Amino acid sequence: INAYLCGTFYEKSKFKLIDIEKKMAQEDVFKKLVSHCKEYGFVFPSSDIYDGLGAVYDYGQMGVELKNNIKKYWWDSMVLLHENIVGIDSAIFMHPTIWKASGHVDAFNDPLIDNKDSKKRYRADVLIEDQLAKYDDKINKEVAKAAKRFGESFDEAQFRSTNGRVLEHQAKRDALHTRFAKALNDGNLDELRQIIIDEEIVCPISGTKNWTEVRQFNLMFSTEMGSTSEGAMKIYLRPETAQGIFVNYLNVQKTGRMKVPFGIAQIGKAFRNEIVARQFIFRMREFEQMEMQFFVKPGTELDWFKKWKEIRLKWHKALGFGDASYRYHDHDKLAHYANAATDIEFLMPFGFKEVEGIHSRTNFDLSQHEKFSGKSIKYFDPELNESYTPYVIETSIGVDRMFLSIMSASYCEEQLENGESRVVLKLPAALAPVKLAVMPLVKKDGLPEKAREVIDSLKFHFHCQYDEKDSIGKRYRRQDAIGTPYCVTVDHQTLEDNCVTLRNRDTMQQERVAISELNNIIADRVSIDRKSTRLNSSHVALSR
Ligand code: ATP
Question: Of 204, 267, 306, 399, which has fewest CB within 10 angstroms of its CB?
Fold first, then answer.
């Protein structure tokens, strides 16, 4: 369990946990994480004193800082590091015809199914995806067992291609996958239900197979704009930020003198009336997206798709949570607008889950807006001396899912040598809400005044906290729990030599440094492009 808690849960084959323990361990980690988020001011249920509102959450004093740092990491890697990407901030309310043109009014649906006994509602496609993951689990378990038995001499590729049990699971998985992909692509809801019946998928709550028919459910929220009932217009809360970029692409291209290929980035709220919303901030009804639409010459889109796929994975990996925590997942069913699509998945405490989608959206959206608005929005290419509708590669990541992946990878319970234990959030320093806590050793002898002096010289550059309450050990624990990478202690010696003790969150090592050096030291260690880490421009941006 400790291994899971220490963010190394992806190495699960190393640990002898039988299935049920493993599942409990994962649920346990997730529960602990959710309560940690509340206890330390990261995430609160929305409308908490009214018992919450389904799948809507508020970010607290720590959460908002972490969220802003995530957004900055993304924004800078897009807009600062690429000369040909600029940002916008479009409105949430948009002309309703936009959603007709984009296909969302007719096709932004999820297939839902109810269990008649538990009365619980599920997404039919997610039930089948979970079943596919079960086959993967069985295969991985066989591989892990064999790896342990054979030790150094184990040849995994050979084992996977020859072992009878693995081949049997793989064949069942492949057959299910083919059938599932076909049903999705045909929009065949009866077949989706039949797959659920044939695979004997049961409701996790009631344990029964008493399923209703599968129905389509549109995920868009609507409201009315206008003060009189006759004059009111039905409008939608945007389910994605992308359309705000599409309808502005020519405004930006002309006013910014942008040349294809170029990109437009945006961070903003999106709203989806999700059928199932039971996984904390993983699936919310109000959430935030960071999207970048990259406009390219027709015919070059698949090359750009490949480049963006690679660079986006590097951006994730640069945070240092271990490459094994990520994988690509190609879409089984392409959306009506796409000719290629991949997800970047992260190993959450409840399995590999999508954090970001990279989609080649063709020229579908721009062509549709041209058709529905009746206005030409073609790009004039001065090099080719011709006009065309650009193709679009989109990278779309959820801020909240990114937040959850970072929190789950950082949350760690450690046994210390002195027999005590601590909860520490090993957040990448650049993303930590508070960079530095300054503490007088005792609340007297001029130490608080000296500590205030130190903090005053730093607080314009870093988010700092001052703390003088309780023992120094307790104060360290509080900072560990919110992921503060450095603590500075002011002691009696400081009054004589102007030096302080600097404590590192992860190693708990302490060093003595001059107050005059603190600014440089901290700046170097918490900077996003620190040379000694992989968080630098050559890893998170496209080369020119
Ligand atoms: P899913 O299959 O999980 O419903 P999706 O494929 O519909 O997700 P996209 O439309 O590709 O998601 O949206 C891009 C990103 O927005 C996702 O990768 C995810 O990070 C985020 N996102 C989408 N829906 C939600 C949601 N309900 N809550 C939080 N984040 C979301």
Answer: 204
**Closest residue by CA, ligand 1 atom 22:** 398
Decide the pairing of beta strands 85-87 and 262-271.
Answer: parallel
What are the tens digits of pLDDT across the range 371-430?
A: 999 999 999 999 999 999 999 999 999 999 999 999 999 999 999 888 889 999 999 999
- Give the C-alpha distances (Å, rounded to integers) separating 489 from 414, 436, 466, 503: 23, 11, 10, 8
Residues 497, 417: contact at Cβ < 8 Å?
Answer: no
For residues 311 and 540, is the Cβ–Cβ distance under 8 A? yes
Confidence of residue 538 (pLDDT cuts 50, 70, 90): low
DSSP 151: G
Ligand 1 centroid from CA 240, angstroms: 9
Overall average pLDDT of the 358-372 stretch: 97
Whose C-alpha lies nearest to ligand 1, atom 29? 283
pLDDT in tens, 464-510: 999 999 999 999 999 999 999 999 999 999 999 999 999 999 999 99
Centroid of ligand 1 to alpha carbon of 326 (angstroms): 17
CB neighbours of residue 335 within 10 Å: 14
Q: Is the CB of 74 under 6 A from ligand 1?
A: no
Rounded distance between C-alpha atoms, residue 31 and residue 233, angstroms: 43
449 contacts 495 by C-beta, under 8 angstroms: no
Mean pLDDT, range 227-246, rounded to an integer? 90
Using one digit for the tens of pLDDT, what is the confidence trace for 90-107?
999 999 999 999 999 998
| C-alpha span between 44 and 59 (Å, rounded) | 6
Tokens coding 186? 């045909």
Q: How many whole angstroms separate alpha carbon 203 and alpha carbon 211?
A: 9
Residue 281 and residue 401 in contact, taking contact as beta carbons nearer than 8 Å: yes
Rounded distance between C-alpha atoms, residue 104 and residue 101, angstroms? 8
- The model carries a pTM of 0.86
Q: Which DSSP letter does residue 299 get?
A: T
Instruction: Take atom 9 of ligand 1 and give the residue whose Cα is closest.
Output: 357
Atom number of ligand 1 nearest to Cα 359 = 11
Nearest CA to ligand 1 atom 20: 398
Cis peptide upstream of residue 261 (ω within 30 degrees of 0): yes
pLDDT in tens, 519-534: 999 999 999 876 545 5
Give the residue, 204 or 229, on which the prediction is more confident: 204
Ligand 1 centroid distance, CA of 284 (Å):
9
DSSP 351-408: EEEEEEEEEE-TTHHHHHHHHHH----PEEETTTTEEE--EEEEEEEEHHHHHHHHHH
Q: Whose CA is nearest to atom 18 of ligand 1?
A: 356
Q: Where residue 126 falls among pLDDT bands split at 50, 70, 90?
A: very high
Q: How far is CA 165 from the centre of its chain?
A: 35
